[in-house]
Design goal:
Largest sheet: 6 strands, mixed
Structural class: alpha/beta
Radius of gyration: 18 Å
Oligomer: single chain
Number of helices: 9
Distance between the termini: 26 Å
Number of strands: 8
Strand content: 5-15%
Shape: globular
Helix content: 25-40%
Length: about 240
């Protein structure tokens, strides 16, 4: 087809409400393309994206996108940055602003709301970026390598933070990551994609006898290594 190479082929999976799904796969297998399609930024040549049975077409309020870089505007305060999505969507109602303020207070940024991004640590900035995404009350959150710009120690802390926030808010999230341990530490299920064109190779359910464990506790659990080996084996076939 005009020399174009398909990024994805026959990709099919479903997420339950409130479920965190990690997407892993070889480099260039179409992970980010998939998120762009769900977000409505790209149109699939075939297939559909359904939310509660209704087709998602174009960019809408149903999805919130979080990227590697926090993209906070340095000349705006943290609170002003958090409200920017509501401004753009013309949703700056008293109720929505109060909700954004409550998120800042609940997740430890209330006292920093008048600070500027340059005055905050990388982890706090990423938390502010997540709150900005949550403020518009999306049904699905899309995280595209959202922690990869952070140093390793900060990453571990931030994944714990973000996991707690997503679970407390009952959000559904698709988490694209090249880091298998990160996927296992955060997700309810890990979807393994094949090499391009990406299709679902396997789905690995992540569960621990102790119930829901936060990311840092998962990493030191005996089953963690088993899950890693299982997913690595699936990926290794494609390399």
């Amino acid at each position: 087809e005009n020399g174009e190479v398909p990024a994805l082929s026959g990709l099919n999976f479903a997420a339950e409400k409130g479920e965190l799904i990690a997407i892993v796969g070889p480099s260039g297998c179409g992970k980010s393309t998939m998120l762009s399609i769900v977000a409505g930024l790209e149109r699939p040549t075939r297939g559909r994206v359904l939310l509660a049975g209704r087709e998602l077409v174009g960019v809408g309020d149903q999805t919130g996108y979080m990227l590697q870089k926090d993209n906070l505007l340095n000349w705006r305060s943290i609170r002003s940055n958090v409200l920017i999505g509501l401004e753009i969507r013309k949703m700056l109602t008293e109720e929505n602003v109060a909700y954004a303020d409550s998120l800042l207070a609940t997740y430890g940024l209330g006292e920093f709301r008048d600070n500027y991004p340059s005055q905050l640590s990388g982890g706090m900035r990423q938390r502010a970026a997540l709150i900005r995404t949550l403020a518009t009350r999306p049904d699905i959150l899309l995280l595209d390598e959202a922690f990869s710009a952070l140093d390793y120690q900060t990453r571990l802390t931030v994944t714990d933070d973000v996991y707690a926030i997503l679970k407390k808010e009952g959000k559904t999230a698709l988490i694209v990551t090249h880091d298998i341990p990160e996927g296992i530490s955060m997700a309810d299920r890990v979807v393994v994609l094949s090499a391009r064109p990406g299709t679902v190779r396997s789905v690995c359910g992540i569960s621990f006898a102790e119930g829901e464990l936060p990311p840092l506790q998962r990493r030191s659990h005996p089953k963690f290594r088993e899950y890693f080996n299982q997913i690595w084996k699936e990926l290794d076939i494609n390399v």
